[in-house]
Amino acid sequence: MTALVRYSLSMLVRSQGYIAPFVLFGSAVVVLTTNDFGPIAGTYSACALIQFVCMLWFTVAIVNTEDRTQRSLTVVAAGGQRRVLVANVLAATVVCVGLSAVGLVYPIYAGTHDVAPADLAVGALAQLTCGFAGTAAGLLCSRLVIPKAGYAVFASLAAIGVMTMVRPVPPVGPVMALLSSATAPDRMLGPVAAMGALSVVMLVASVLVAELIVRQQD
Amino acid sequence: MPSMGEGRAGTVELRNVTKRYAGSAPVLDGVNLTVAPGDVVGVVGANGCGKSTLLRIMVGLSTPTAGTVTGRPAVVGYVPEKLPGHGRVSARAYLTHLGRIRGLSGRQAAGRARELLDRLSLVGGAGTSLRRLSKGNAQKVALAQALLVPPGLLVLDEPWSGLDATAHEVLAELVKEVAAAGGAVVFTDHREAVVAANASAVHHIAGGRLTPVARDRGASTAQVELTPGGPGVKWPHWPSLPGVVDATVGDRSVALTVLDPYCDELLFQAIRNGWSVAGVRR
């Protein structure tokens, strides 16, 4: 599995598909958090939103680096479609952890905030939660599931719209709402962790759905 | 590195395999095929008749609508008709990654990749990116990735297409080596003569049905006798040449049995390389 994850990340780097979402993430974090002040949970809310959008994009880029034929070679070498899908998700998770670290530390460095350990825990959990949700959505918007690029773009935009603007739809909306509220950070931990667990379930479900759809297409 | 015996399995069997896509006639209809270790099975058929679908089902990329596939070994090598050439990754790096995925260490994978690419004479070198490779050279990389670890089942989709004459010989050798090591080989081609020249068993596919072909059907041959035109004439490995079914090599001449479609080309190449035609009998 390590070799597959390494291969996925290597293909992402060589394809340069990481540049656009990385630039978007960096720019958005800098613009939204530099010289910010007040409760840092609210700032982390913005980072979590950006994380969702960028991880959706990153995941599409990771999966789409291989076309159907090249992917078939990877699948045969790996011993099954599911193993490659899981490797794609793990590669996305590596990226997500990296972005979360940036999204966690940069606002502290560039703004003026009182930071408690609970703030850091909530911030990390929130960003990972939204990152996982973005990965799940990205997998379902990739070429594997939606072969036509135009439809995939519309599906991605629809997913972003629904998940971020319709606040009751978990986990992104509720996490953002919670972090933007006046709730104490230590009291946010439980609900955010629950949303995190939900995002992991979404991730697993997205792998299974993608596998099912690929099998039906073949 | 995995031993030659790794990935070996028993007989691969397709039983009543049917593949139907929504709203269309079945691509495969009740296909039965048995491939034992050491077999080299050729499947011949027109373009679009279901050859590639059959191969994708054999390697597990596609699921049959009905029927079963059993006995698929742990290590399967698959060579598609054309490796896409838009990757920025070099042939060496690509093969090293695929080798790692197949369980080799980075060093083993790189070594095996170098060995295979040298043997296949990849033009431009192993550092060339996939997108810069010609069709033939991309095909060589596709072949190499399937052979990084000795496969229990090697499946090749029109592998002779686009390869140069030297690579034809090497491919024929590689196929024989896989079979000799106990692997099963299945390949397709739309040219019956190519299949007949390289397979131990031939099947014809049409209308979704797979039917075994008598070994000599459609494979009329010519008896060719050649003598070297001078002392410096190079003696090739006659049995590996395209279309050569049998070769009897003497001190001063060689007698070949050549599939008819290959006869003219073989004679042309022989004369060009300094050989004289002592006789041709069709």
Plain-language structure description:
The complex is a heterodimer of chains A (218) and B (282). With 218 residues, chain A is mainly alpha-helical. Chain A has one domain (2-217). Chain A has helices spanning 2-15, 19-33, 40-64, 68-78, 81-110, 117-140, 149-165, 172-180, 185-217. In chain A, α3 packs parallel to α6 and α4 (68-78) crosses α5 (81-110). Chain B is built from seven helices and 13 strands. Chain B has helices at 51-59, 91-101, 106-120, 135-146, 165-180, 192-198, 260-272; strands spanning 12-19, 28-35, 40-44, 66-70, 76-79, 153-157, 184-189, 201-206, 209-213, 221-228, 244-249, 254-259, 275-281. In chain B, the strands form three sheets. In chain B, strands 5-6-7-3-8-9 form a six-stranded mixed β-sheet, with helices on both faces. A four-stranded antiparallel β-sheet of chain B has the order 11-12-10-13. A three-stranded antiparallel β-sheet of chain B has the order 2-1-4, covered by helices on one side. The chains are: A mainly alpha (218), B alpha/beta (282). At the A-B interface, α1 and α4 of A face β5 and α2 of B.
